[in-house]
Amino acid sequence: MSTHNGEKHETGADxxxxxxxxxxxxxxxxxxxxxxxxxAALAWSCVFHGGLTRKPASFHATNDAVVxxxxxxxxxxxxEDFRYNDYDGWIVLxxxxxxxxxxAVNNVLHGDVLWNERGVFYGSPSHxxxxxxxxxxxxxxRYRSSDERxxxxxxxxxxxxxxxxxxxxxxxxxxxxxxxxxxxxxxxGGAVGQCGSRILAITGTKQSPGISAAAFxxxxxRSGDEKPPTTLAAVVQLNDHxxxxxxxxxxxxxxxxxxxxxxxxxxxxDVITMPTELSDEAAASSHGSTSERQRTMVLERWDLSTGxxxxxxxxxxxxxxxxxxxxxxVSEYEAIRVGSEYRFVSSGGDAFAVDLTSGQGRHxxxxxxxxxxxxxxxxxxxTGVYMLKDxxxxxxxxxxYRPWEGGEWRDIFTTRDLAYYLKEGVxxxxxxxxxxxxxxxxxxxxx
Length: 447
Description:
This protein has helices at 2-17, 23-45, 212-223, 419-422; strands spanning 47-49, 52-54, 67-72, 90-94, 100-104, 114-116, 119-123, 127-132, 135-140, 148-153, 159-164, 168-174, 180-186, 191-195, 198-204, 232-237, 248-253, 266-268, 271-280, 294-303, 308-313, 323-324, 334-338, 341-345, 350-355, 361-366, 374-380, 384-391, 397-403, 410-415, 432-438. By secondary structure, the protein is mainly β.
């Protein structure tokens, strides 16, 4: 080796004496510069804030993470005049101690994150992403999405996202083979959910004028009424159709005061059931004066095989209607079926259990944390409720767990590291926790 090196030095000196260019040394210098710049770029991209490492999304992998969190515009900015793309967005993967990694992902309204056997599924206005133990794969959309409603895992392994684009719902699907398909549902809104391979909306002809003609035709064919109602309720399919018109699967007269904003419902065969609110202006409420409208919980059930709807009152243990009020509601719940019961927690932190067969209902608990001090989002398992709680004064975030019955809230971890991304900075806006998802099979709070 020493002889070889000596020969190299002599050759270089000979070239210098005769005025020949020293190309090998120049090449080495350029190669060294490239390496230095690459290392610097990697070091710049991997920024540390406490227990979080900031990386490009392409470097993300699930590793030992148990919680995936989507950060973006939310309640803290709801009164501001802004465009969704004025904001940064982030995807965060945390382990059971609250440490992990974060990546910048452009903001969408109501950004949702799903974690199933395929991986962590989330998106930006222009791409969907799937993060696994092997890394992150991006799927370019053929359209830009600004407002997500919900993400779903389909039985064939495909992953779907429902977006509300103003003109109606759009369902984008990332198939197992990497294909990305899109179905437009013109002038269609309502409560959305999944039943098997179908993404559905429970809606009405006033809310969804795009299905009005088909809904009235279906009602006339089934009922034979010469004078149909002025408005109808309907169930329509949002995916797996040609996009020209959303198929109407069931139809019934609209009931005034019935409805709530939801993104899931119970499914058994061709029957879907959604706990919702029924407001009766003529009835008195035990929560207020006789002039206050009565609000009760009911089960809105649709049989898609017959096209018929039924309304089942939810009764408490004393046989009385289970009443709701301004402090206790059912909107935007997260739910799971446990035996014959449908257990759910509303976006306001009210937990209920309803027997889907009998309609027997129970109020399990309500969140005792004031919304003026904390913003919270929820996920559920068969054993209980997980809450990701954001303390407004300093943006400290805590993951807590409470069993459905017979227990209190227990903190799993608390982290200050998300505050850097949630707080308003010189060049950044205030953000909120939009949603979170748990690793499939992980139920650390119950252990």
